[in-house]
Amino acid sequence: VFNAIFYGYLIQREISLRYALHQLGMQLAQPAHMLAHLTQHHLKNLEARYPEGMIYRFLDATNVLLERETRSFDRPAFGIASVQIGAKQVYVTEHAVVDHPFCTLRHFKKHTAHLGSKVLIVAPLAGHYASLLRDTVKRMLQTHDVYITDWKNARDISICEGTFDLDDYVALLLDFFKAMKGPFHVMAVCQPTVTVTVATLLCEQMNLPYKPSTVILMGGPIDTRKNPSVINHFAKSHSLAWFDSQCIYPVPPPHKGAMRRVCPGFLMLNGFMAVDPSRHLQSLITFYENLIHGSGDAVATHTQFYDEYRSVMDLPAEYVMQTLDRVFHRHLLPYGLFMWRDQPVKPSAWHTTPFLTIEGEKDNISPPGQTFALHNLTPNLPEYKKHHHLQKGTGHYGIFSGHRWREEIAPVIERFISKS
Length: 420
What we know:
Layout: H1 2-13, H2 18-28, H3 30-49, H4 54-69, E1 82-85, E2 88-100, E3 103-110, E4 118-122, H5 134-141, E5 145-151, H6 166-179, E6 184-189, H7 193-206, E7 214-218, H8 230-237, H9 240-247, E8 249-250, E9 261-263, H10 265-275, H11 277-293, H12 296-309, E10 315-316, H13 317-329, H14 332-335, E11 339-340, E12 343-344, E13 355-360, H15 373-377, E14 386-391, H16 403-419
Parallel strand pairs: 4-5, 4-6, 6-7, 7-13, 13-14
Antiparallel strand pairs: 1-2, 2-3, 3-5, 8-9, 9-10, 11-12
Helix pairs in contact: 3-4, 4-11, 6-7, 6-13, 11-12
């Protein structure tokens, strides 16, 4: 009965059934997925019995691709049970400090007497789960006491919890700032550079006691007029009405958030893939070849990356539309016209908190110049409190994961925090 009412509502409102059709397609693919999953063990046995039989390797490789392409990739675990600190292995446990309907403030508690200063990592609310920053967390745990914003999938949040927009996002950050209880540093990766900037400006303007000691902003859209990317041009060239009609859909049953308006994760994943389709296609071809030739390490590297990359969540429609409007269309923050719940937010009010901006030379999502723009927007902050690092040879994901992050960027952040 509920399904009939729901789809009747869709037809009446002339809303696209794309989300429902996507879900139906995934459900129809489940028999093929189960068959591929059950066949894997049998093919492995045949490979072991006939190691020279290339036909079995081809079949097994094809079967693995079928299983992965019909799989629904759910929220990955952080899986950080310990961290290496010097010569010592320190155990780590996760704790929920604040459980908000849309986000959990999560603490990675180290079982050692020397925790280090507190660092709040604000993960992007941009489609992927916060576990995408696993490498960021692990590296920062070596020297600091780490917390993170663990965002929840909007499709699993009941409409009874209300809406969640950009203003709610900033309010949530202020609540998390307060929950840190004492001096802390905040690190924003990509999208939340804007909301963290707004929250810090409000702390400055209102002289709030839970203002962060330092702010680190990494590869984010502070001013998308600077060195605009393909994504920026696309966002600017399409109206808000177009985005609302083409990218916003109600969640279908049986999800807990049924009838909540969202930007579906599968649409954003398609967008991520479309930024560099040739690279993803070549990666898939190489993965298939490595499966055939038994290149275990290369296969493991591919599956680890794409298991995370393809795990996406739905975003609240109000938040998405306000971000498009305020950040990508009207550029309210760099123009000094940003409002938070009828309160003006002026970048010129930033006058005490040191900040560090970090950009990747080859970043094609938030290109160099967009995060650095904050330097020119804060004339009342002394220059010695402004710092910038441009990482050579690094793309967007390289500024918070991989060997350059661990060996070159993280030490810059640690020096900045220790000297501020």
